[in-house]
Amino acid sequence: MHNLTEFLARYKHWFLFVALEVLSMVLLFRFNDYQGSVWFTSANYVAGLAYEASSKVTSYLTMGEVNEKLTKRNLELEHQVRELSSQLYDKTKDSTFLRGQYRFLSKFRLIQAKVVSNSLDRPDNFITINKGTWDGVRKDMGVACGNGVVGIVYMAGIHYAVVIPVLNSKSNISCSIQGRDYFGYLHWNGGATDMAYLDDVPRHAKFKLGDRIVTSGYSSVFPAGVLVGKIKHVYNSEDGLSYRLAIELSTDFGNLRDVCVIDDASIREQRQVIKAAQDSIKPIEQQNANQGE
């Protein structure tokens, strides 16, 4: 306490000077219009610079979140465009609207994720995303981006998951020609990262180059209607009994950053029913095998 009193006594003239300066500045700017306007303008300018700098920093820090929202919105708009295109096709063809409309937004939720690892130069490429079981990601969930199909969740950890993309020799996705009932299975045989092949398309199928290829909905992974790509070329299968379509993929795997994991309640229920059926068949098969012995 003695030191504080000594300090105040030693520098009391400076404290008095500062106090009088502050008082004079307040009186000057408060009771003089010109000086007050100068102070107001200068203060607003400095505050504007500070707010602008703060806004830029905030915008930079929230770019990731905005990008994720845009990815989700792009995917939603793609679904809406495909629905309207299908309705327009059926309207002009036979004056009836598409039966069983796409109801993506009411049927599933999209889990936003970022790609943290991605390979393109291997026969069996894999993608790692930064979401796992903690976020609701499970094995065998479909993965898409704003441009279309990406792949299927192969393995899910707590905070990360591994995805088998279309660019993997083991990838096998059921797809169909948009607006038609013909379907086949999508495979990738290596090589170009923007091309894959749709096999087992029946010979009586009617289509043309440029038609869109979408998921068929016949598997327990993807709902029907997720964009895959467009027909680029048509080939005969090796046995000549079906067509093989070269598909130009809509997803740019070389520039893949943000994706969505599709959590579809109806698909999840379908998987549970299939698993329950398989589990119930195993005891019967085992019993039959024991009786045969």
Automatic annotation (TrEMBL):
Gene Ontology terms: cellular component: plasma membrane
Keywords associated with the record: Cell shape, Membrane, Transmembrane, Transmembrane helix
Gene3D superfamilies (UniProt xref): Rod shape-determining protein MreC, domain 1, Rod shape-determining protein MreC, domain 2
Membrane-crossing segments per the record: 14-31
BP term (GO), one: regulation of cell shape
Record-annotated Rod shape-determining protein MreC beta-barrel core domain positions: 115-262
UniProt similarity note: Belongs to the MreC family.
Stored NCBIfam families: PRK13922.9-3 (NF010532)
Protein name: Cell shape-determining protein MreC
Provenance organism: Prevotella veroralis F0319
Lineage, opening ranks: Bacteria, Pseudomonadati, Bacteroidota, Bacteroidia, Bacteroidales
Encoding gene per record: mreC
